[in-house]
Amino acid sequence: MSNPRQSLMRRLRLMRILVAAFVLCGLTLSFADFTGAIASNLKWLARIQFMPAVLALSLWTIAAILALTFLFGRVYCSLVCPLGILQDLFFFFGRLFGVRQSAAAPGSRAVFNVVRGALLLVFLAGGFLGLHFQWLEPYAIYSRFASVVVSPLARMGNNALAEWAARNSSYAFHAVECVAPAMAVVVASAGLAAIAAALAVWRGRVWCNTVCPVGTMLAGAARVALVKPKIDGEACVKCGMCARACKGRCIDVEKGRIDLTRCVACFDCGAVCGKGAISWSK
Ligand code: SF4
Ligand code: SF4
Ligand code: SF4
Question: pLDDT truncated to tens, each residue of the chain (282 aa)?
């Protein structure tokens, strides 16, 4: 039987999953819905994305995301960013199919930190010079994937259904226009999404904590988050279950510490801790 703290964490985790599923499905539909009926109601999901808000100088959205991060850590990375949610999905499937995920190698963290800082500098320098490093920006990666891979597939699927239905004297489906995107763009878009997904299967949120410039920027605010996950040293029996469940690879069980710059506020650790040793508090 789970203790009250673990039960609370499980509920928070479930809520996180439901919200994230809505955001991922909604954003994908906003690109793939060729009827236009649903997509028009989901456009607001694009407006709450960090980099689109920066490029549009949407100060309220930027302030809200930063305030959320200063208050609760990188909740944005668990709930709002489609590329992050996609990685969680592949992380989950990796576990489901028994992929043995690598733990962070001792000493590798410093290397990852250097790469992380360097990529952020490249991204920012590119921005100031007017270059758009879209292959690093999470929303650009996901939206391109959804529009040049998922959307054409949805149209092709619909047209195949329409053809099959017509052969059976049914007009429940109607063929829609399907323009094939350039193959190079399809390969690049699918390739980037596949790399992030494969890394997630291998090592959880390694893309988020090494490559993504938005994640690195938010990590600065998350470092001083007001409400954060903590390990109760008295209750912890150092079983290591939380560290194995952690997609951010940010729990040091021996020292009883959590690296807030890597934590993506997913509640997975608290949900698996049968001792109720993990809480979210000031
Ligand atoms: S680190 Fe980047 S890719 Fe990962 S969830 Fe956050 S914003 Fe998205
Ligand atoms: S799962 Fe709980 S008891 Fe086990 S190491 Fe983590 S905090 Fe400690
Ligand atoms: S420490 Fe790890 S498992 Fe716990 S909330 Fe942060 S990322 Fe998730």
Answer: 668 899 999 999 999 999 999 999 999 999 888 887 788 889 899 999 999 999 899 999 999 999 999 999 999 999 999 999 999 999 999 988 888 766 555 456 788 888 888 988 888 888 777 776 677 899 999 999 999 999 999 899 988 998 898 888 887 778 888 888 888 889 999 999 999 999 999 889 999 999 999 999 999 999 999 999 999 999 999 999 999 999 999 999 999 999 999 999 999 999 999 999 999 988
User: CB-based contacts of 51: which residues, under 8 Å, 6+ apart?
Assistant: 137, 138, 139, 140, 214
Output the CA 201–ligand 3 centroid distance in Å: 16
* Ligand 1 pocket, residue 141 CB under 6 Å: no
Domain positions in the chain = 4-144+181-281
pTM given for the model = 0.91
Copy the structure tokens of residue 61.
């959205």
Give the C-alpha distances (Å, rounded to integers) separating 10 from 43, 160, 244, 278: 31, 42, 16, 12
- Cβ of 73 less than 6 Å from ligand 1: no
Q: Which residues contact 78 (CB under 8 A, 6 or more apart)?
A: 16, 20, 84, 85, 88, 264, 265, 266
> Which of 78, 81, 89, 115 to mutate for ligand 1's pocket (most ligand atoms within 8 Å of CB)?
81
Residues with CB under 6 Å of ligand 3 are 229, 245-248, 250-251, 258, 263-269
- Ligand 3 centroid, distance to 249 Cα (angstroms): 8
